[in-house]
From TrEMBL, chains A, B:
Organism of provenance: Lentilactobacillus hilgardii (strain ATCC 8290 / DSM 20176 / CCUG 30140 / JCM 1155 / KCTC 3500 / NBRC 15886 / NCIMB 8040 / NRRL B-1843 / 9)
Alphabetic keyword roster: ATP-binding, Ligase, Nucleotide-binding, One-carbon metabolism
Protein's UniProt keywords contain ATP-binding: yes
Pathway connected to this protein: One-carbon metabolism; tetrahydrofolate interconversion
Record-given protein name: Formate--tetrahydrofolate ligase
Catalytic EC class: ligase
Family: Belongs to the formate--tetrahydrofolate ligase family.
EC number: 6.3.4.3
Catalytic reaction equation(s): (6S)-5,6,7,8-tetrahydrofolate + formate + ATP = (6R)-10-formyltetrahydrofolate + ADP + phosphate
Matches recorded under NCBIfam families: PRK13505.1 (NF010030)
Annotated GO biological process: tetrahydrofolate interconversion
InterPro entries: Formate_THF_ligase (IPR000559), Formate_THF_ligase_CS (IPR020628), P-loop_NTPase (IPR027417)
GO molecular-function terms, A-Z: ATP binding; formate-tetrahydrofolate ligase activity
Length: 554, 554
């Protein structure tokens, strides 16, 4: 059986200009990165984004993921098989996890975006530019303090940390500025992973270079000794930071193994950030495609909720159909099976675990749009398990379901699903907002998410979070949407509570004001914004030979 | 008067494929980054690198630099004017200083490589890839310790720091791994600027992907509790790190304003590292051009010495001619003029300062190759000053000299110099090694550099350096060349000692074993491997408008 990277390296790709010609993108608007990747100079216009929008999400995943990207790509290729003009809008992989865990963000098997070995590594440098811009701002803040601190910034109240696109637990909590008078001011600091940077969220929400600069200027970087907020605009460096992102803001276009066009742009994690690819890329997909298929990170409780509540108002478009990806494996895990035995048939665990799927479907139905379940087939699934799950979807959930086998079969393995998605898009209903965006309080918004999406009962704020909420409301930002930072493994804030727990409380430990992104991050449970590497990192098995042949990259 | 970035943004560039067609580079070997930048898949062959090699270096610079890159580019354009097939081989700019000080590394005025706004920012992502690979290794080391430390690595003896391409003094000395058992092991650490990374030196010295991997495997990362060395190969991650650099190793090709081809690849600083662009790029220039012009960082005491003693044995080629760039301004500074009055005529200071030029010329003549002085004209130079300097070069130094005015005139301003360089290349003599590479000791090598290039008298090692030297010799690495880390402002290790001091001692505070690069770094004086930002960083004046028009980037 071929590895993902072998399939990618053997693929017969079309020159990217063949893809852009098909889409009618002007050659002058391209900035190619090699022969198979290009940035596109794209100016969005709401008047032209008339494609149908399909959002792919999932149940609570296992550590290995549920193949949501594989399903998204396979579904796109099925649209291509059906001669539909479809464009994907996906997230860029983060390099940190690539070096840590097996399993990429570029699909798998015969449903991949290619060249995966480039997309998974530095791609077109967007994350590097974000890292550089983020850390340049950090250096400029400390440099301001070093040179007299005219703004009176309190080094104990700086909220702008540093970032790296590396899974490096060693940098979570650090003390910097040691070494005496010429080497800065000693203070406590920390590093997040780049995908958690507010600049990543900003890049994904900005609709133009001008909007990007405006959002950057609004970033809250800390407080003065007398507790007044300090913004990037106070430092006068929004121009320089925007300059560093002048190419990163342009959506990247590649293709699938079956030559379906795919924009891949931006990639905040959905557990610690808002979890959706860039608005510019999604707008481009809606403009150039009759159908745009996008995905949101982790389960529907995370990425999809944020897509609905944070992204759609800025996108000026809501999904015409929502696809929830489920797997027998993950449902068995949610039903109590040991994670080491997920390859073994276990109908009991599956029967217990389907309540997890039910809650995801219920949650997505809150928004009033058609919901379809895609059962992503794994080789280890038994016929009985797949049959049981199909029947459950049809008879108990009473929604459309379809088994998909794109990992093995590419687009062909998703044609039936594609036909049902097309039918659903043609019967799409009115979008319902989860909460009143104008008039509800921060607590009301969190409560709506917890009760109506997670199925919990209450929200509890720590003393620190309560104080921060008071400050936020006093500063006049109580009307912003909330971006929940929560484990992807559970509806609760405890990664071990699988299935569909009832009557639980979500514990908010802290609130963070992200004024450039335009939302408030609520940190729940023990969420980490800088991951670590496992005891046997994937990096140990990677290699490249003298001819450039790669092994061990999934 | 137009700014550098205005000139660049208004330039009529040729499509990069026009340039590669002229050079006979196969289209299949290109990986374009937009329409005006490309990476070149280049496999070097010593048999084909038959171009003449010209090395451009300089006197001790002012803080603003002496326009060495401007001269190099102007000289290249003059060769083009003379219908010679010339290819430049330059270093990539580091982003850290771009945000700090005015003055880029892409030339200036009408002698620039373009698009300068891209080259000065992220270019093709090489430095980002180096940063990522460097920090991935750091994370893997700490992760190894976290997960049981099978190799018995002593956290107090790790010599692999972290890096960022940001001027960030706050990160020079840090404590990492705080936060308890799940967040690493607390220890002292520090960040260098990316150009100081051993990976940068390795990238610039590697001759193939295989050589790159082999060098990476040899990197010394620290010592065990019982003082045994630990290498990258012990961690088994040379494959993953090479994979991260698979594109960075490919030379980048751009053009000057006058369409002269220019490879720009790699860029270690010459004060804290070896200061020369990549061997692959220089080999490519020697292969595709009849003349290859390269430059080495800072004064001839730094970059050029390292080019001669570290690079040429690995390049299998020595320069046919050396061009020393001098300016009236810098010589006046070296003659005691106040740096604020360098625009004012001051023949007295100039007459005192020319001894700095003399020592650089003397040093370069040690290698037996023709030396030519290029007097880089500034608008503020008086006729009397320029005449005095020209006469001094001709009558006192008895070497060929020529005034060059490429900043204002491009290639036309350097045609006379170009003709003299061509003549010199045709009369090039045998290369003399500065020291016996096989048989001299580390101390003998340092002494040769200090006495014959710097004009000093002795080398003094600190107690720490002496201990390190003992360890290095005991480990069997006493035969490696030495890479001096020294201030660029003085022949001595004290930045304030200008001119041409006599009878001085160079103080070596520490030695660092760079086994992947294959040299020993000797830290002298108070050299910093992580710069800081000034009180008014250049970033504060940069901007980009909604049409992408850039201001404030030089």
């Amino acid at each position: 059986m071929k590895s993902d990277v072998e399939i990618s390296q053997e693929a017969k790709m079309a020159p990217i200009t063949t893809i852009t010609d098909q889409l009618g993108i002007n050659y002058d608007d391209l900035e190619q990165y090699g022969k198979y990747k290009t940035k596109v100079n794209f100016t969005p216009s709401d008047a032209h984004q008339d494609g149908k929008l399909i959002l792919v999400t999932s149940i609570n995943p296992t550590a290995a993921g549920e193949g949501k990207t594989t399903v998204t790509i396979g579904l796109g290729d099925a649209f291509t098989e059906l001669h539909k003009n479809v464009v994907l809008a996906l997230r860029e992989p983060s390099l940190g996890p690539v070096m840590g865990m097996k399993g990429g963000a570029t699909g798998g098997g015969y449903a991949q975006v290619v060249p995966m070995e480039d997309i998974n590594l530095h791609f077109t440098g967007d994350f590097d530019a974000l890292t550089e811009a983020h850390n340049t701002l950090a250096a400029l803040i400390d440099n301001h303090i070093q040179h007299g601190n005219q703004l009176n910034i309190d080094p104990r109240q700086i909220v702008w940390k540093r970032v790296l696109d590396v899974n490096d637990r060693e940098l979570r909590q650090v003390v910097i500025g040691l070494g005496g008078r010429t080497s800065g001011v000693p203070r406590q600091d920390g590093f997040d992973i780049t995908v958690a940077s507010e600049l990543m969220a900003i890049l994904c929400l900005a609709t133009s270079l001008q909007d990007l600069k405006h959002r950057i200027s609004k970033i809250l970087i800390g407080y003065t000794y007398d507790r007044k907020p300090v913004y990037v605009s106070d430092l006068h460096v929004e121009g320089a930071l925007t300059l560093l992102l002048k190419d990163a803001i342009k959506p990247n276009l590649v293709q699938t193994l079956e030559h379906t066009p795919a924009f891949i742009h931006g990639g905040p994690f959905a557990n610690i950030a808002h979890g959706c690819n860039s608005i510019l890329a999604t707008k481009a997909a809606l403009t150039y495609g009759d159908y745009a298929i996008t995905e949101a990170g982790f389960g529907s409780d995370l990425g999809a909720e944020k897509f609905m509540d944070i992204v759609t108002p800025r996108l000026n478009k809501t999904p015409d159909c929502v696809v929830v990806v489920a797997t027998v494996r993950a449902l068995k895990l949610n039903g109590g099976a040991d994670k080491k035995t997920l390859n073994v048939e276990n109908l009991d665990a599956l029967k217990k675990g389907v309540i997890n799927l039910k809650r995801h479907v219920d949650g997505m139905q809150q928004y009033g749009k058609p919901v379809i379940v895609a059962i992503n087939k794994f080789a280890s699934d038994s016929m009985e398990e797949l049959t049981y799950l199909s029947n459950y979807v049809q008879n108990d959930l009473k929604v459309t379901g379809e088994i998909i086998n794109s990992w093995a079969e590419g687009g062909k393995g998703a044609v039936d699903l594609a036909q049902k998605v097309i039918a659903a898009c043609n019967n799409s209903d009115k979008f319902h907002e989860l909460y009143d965006h104008e008039n509800s309080s921060v607590l009301e918004k969190m409560t709506a998410i917890v009760t109506r999406i997670y199925g919990g009962s209450t929200v509890e704020l720590s003393r620190k979070a309560k104080n921060e909420l008071k400050r936020i409301e006093k500063m006049g930002y109580g009307n912003l949407p909330v971006c929940m930072a929560k484990t992807q493994y559970s509806f609760t804030d405890n990664a071990k509570e699988l299935g569909a727990p009832e009557n639980f409380t979500i514990h908010v430990s802290d609130l963070q004001l992200k004024l450039g992104a335009g939302f408030i991050v609520a940190l729940t449970g023990k969420i980490l914004t800088m991951p670590g590497l496992p005891s046997h990192p994937a990096a140990l098995d990677m290699d490249i030979d003298e001819n450039g042949r790669i092994t061990g990259l999934f």
